[in-house]
Design brief:
Largest sheet: none
Number of helices: 3
Helix content: 40-55%
Distance between the termini: 28 Å
Order of helices and strands: HHH
Shape: globular
Radius of gyration: 13 Å
Length: about 100
């Protein structure tokens, strides 16, 4: 059975977004998802560089884009995303 694309499913809730961001970050940074806290700073606490953040954005756009047609994280908004919480709030607000 072929996978459906751009299915308008149930809207992701805040916990699902947080879990998705944690899982993606953990893969990129090669750390445990449970070690990532909502208040963590990408740079100061997680040692994420700009390349890691770009990978995170691309992963989120791909994953969430499968559920929500046209989901994008705008380049000019990236500088405002300093913590995991900022990213979660941003994504939830855009859904």
């Amino acid at each position: 059975m072929p996978a459906e694309t751009h299915v308008e499913g149930d809207k992701m809730d805040r916990n699902e977004v947080l879990t998705l961001i944690r899982d993606r970050l953990a893969d990129i940074l090669e750390i445990e998802p449970d070690s990532i806290k909502e208040g963590d700073s990408f740079v100061d606490d997680l040692d994420a560089d700009s390349l890691a953040l770009i990978e995170l954005v691309e992963g989120l756009e791909e994953e969430i884009g499968e559920r929500t047609v046209g989901f994008r994280i705008e380049d000019e908004d990236l500088e405002d995303l300093k913590t995991v919480r900022d990213a979660v709030d941003y994504v939830v607000a855009r859904l």
